[in-house]
Amino acid sequence: MEQLIKTIVQPLVDFPDDVRITVNESENRVVYKLAVHPQDVGKVIGKQGSVAKAIRTIVYSAASSHHMKKTYVDIID
């Protein structure tokens, strides 16, 4: 799942080497925390959150077949 998120996010940003993903997993959920360069936060979120919503939709769809846990994607600014 981390590779999927990187594959989606890296072409969107100006600093692809600064894309970092950390995973926090508990019994019933998995949280992917996405951190990007401060200048790229707006590009990842998009107007009114449209890009972030699209990223989350893709990850949730892929994770539903991969994990049997609730999946979240948090964008850290």
Automatic annotation (TrEMBL):
It comes from the Bacteria. It is found in: Cytoplasm. It holds the Pfam family KH_KhpA-B. Gene3D superfamilies: 3.30.300.20. GO terms for molecular function: RNA binding. SUPFAM superfamilies: Prokaryotic type KH domain (KH-domain type II). GO terms for cellular component: cytoplasm. Its main location: cytoplasm. Coiled coil: none annotated. Keywords: Cell shape, Cell wall biogenesis/degradation, Chaperone, Cytoplasm, RNA-binding. Forms a complex with KhpB. A probable RNA chaperone. Forms a complex with KhpB which binds to cellular RNA and controls its expression. Plays a role in peptidoglycan (PG) homeostasis and cell length regulation. HAMAP family: KhpA (MF_00088). Belongs to the KhpA RNA-binding protein family. This is RNA-binding protein KhpA. It comes from Candidatus Kurthia intestinigallinarum. The lineage of its organism: Bacteria, Bacillati, Bacillota, Bacilli, Bacillales.
